[in-house]
Amino acid sequence: MKLFVLTFSNFIASIAMGIALTVVPWELSKSLGGEKVLAFTATYATALLIFLAPVSGRVVDRFSRRSTLMVCIVMMAIVLQIASVAYGNSFLKVASLSVFYFASQVFFLFFYNALTAFIQEVFAESERGKVNGWMQVEMQVSTFVVGLLMIYAVNSNDFQFLLQLNSGLMLLSAFLLCFIPYTQQARPARARVSRMVFRSILKRKDLVLLGICANITYVAIMMLNVVHPIYLSSVLKLDISDLAKLSISFGLGAALSGFLVSRIVTTQSALMTMRICLVIYTLTLLTISLFPTLPTIVIGMGILGAMGSAERVAFNTYVMSMVEKDIFGSYLSVISSLTYIQRTLFGFLLSLLIVGFPAANYYWFVFAISACGLLGHVILLFITNNQILEVREEHA
Fold first, then answer.
1. Count: domains in the chain
2. Tell me: the pLDDT tens digits for 340-387?
3. Which residues form the domain of 217?
4. 172-190 pLDDT tens trace
5. How distant, in Å, are the alpha carbons of 5, 287, 303, 364 from that of 377?
6. 280 and 173 assigned to the same domain
7. Which of 168, 41, 36, 14 lies closest to 105, judged by CA?
8. Fewest C-beta atoms under 10 Å: which of 21, 118, 225, 347?
9. Residue 341 exposed, middle or buried by CB count within 10 Å (0-12, 13-18, 19+)
């Protein structure tokens, strides 16, 4: 029952945010000067999230995780409502939509850290692999539903109403969380001192490196989101329908993998699962780099979706057992901050490559990123520590 309610609540929120995040960038790009505002907002939001991430972790650990989730969702509903009201005003439209886009990036940071920590606290260790898998399935299914709605059921005249409707859906998502039995566990005093907490986390170089390696697949996909449209249009001379095929292939692979891996992954098998997934992920990118034709890329994206989803399920399942509940949100926030740094750094390098070498095979760059993750796993073979990460009194 808990899993059903959580999945359904998250599904509703994903639909609402998916529609809004399709409408808002589109409307900004069509507005006078909106495309510059969108680019500026996206760039600076990513940079700011590097510094906001540790704050999100402390908030998640200090307060009730269910309450944190509900507050995040309700605040986003309010922002959506304000954006819908301002949508009809040509003077306020661009400003309100850009504020929403920025707020959505902050929302996802707090929301997913709180959601992952909430799963750790509410579900038993034997249930977490299944829960993490269903979260991946829900994410991909909601993406499909949003795509279908935007293609067949939505037109530009509905955009203002959609923002209002999505606000209501977010409130419904928050309300459903009330039906999940939850009692906040008391946090020891030592876990409330930020300096002690972050020092303890950073001392566990194995878990920090593991988080970096686990998110390599996410960073690689962010880079592919830039590479695909450039390569398909400039080199292969294809159109946007072919780009859609990549998204469908990726989504199918990720959803199927999330469903299957959730049934087999355990804390004991998680590390090996992550290593196997990253090896296959890297070999797939190597194949795409060597043979960058549309059929290869389409098939490859399905495999990348499957391996990335499986690795995320395995990583979450493993660290939920290896990191003490009292500081789990803070651990996730450190990994989030490092991931945003990776995304910013590799994004900058990719931009330089695109400017310096137009219409080149940029898939080799993404392959190199994934290979760095493999190197990290080789290092982990020598430094992995099976002790639980917690804040000890002697750290004070």
1. 2
2. 999 888 888 888 888 888 778 899 999 999 999 999 999 999 998 888
3. 204-384
4. 999 999 999 888 777 777 7
5. 36, 21, 20, 20
6. no
7. 41
8. 225
9. middle
Tell whether 82 is covered by a domain. Answer: yes
Clarify whether residues 5 and 154 are in a common domain: yes
First-last CA distance in the chain: 41
* Sign of torsion over alpha carbons 124, 76, 170, 248: negative
Residues in contact with 143: Cβ distance below 8 Å, sequence separation at least 6, in sequence order: 14, 18, 247, 251
Three-state SS annotation for 93-123: HHHHHHHHHHHHHHHHHHHHHHHHHHHHHHC
Extract the tokens encoding 375. 């190197």
389: left (phi over 0), alpha (psi -120 to 50) or beta: beta
Same domain, 174 and 210: no
DSSP reduced 3-state for 2: helix
Q: Which residue type, as a one-letter code, is found at position 111?
A: F
The reply to whether 217 and 95 lie within a common domain is no
Q: Give domain status of residue 74, yes or no.
A: yes
For the full predicted model, state whether its pTM sits above 0.70: yes
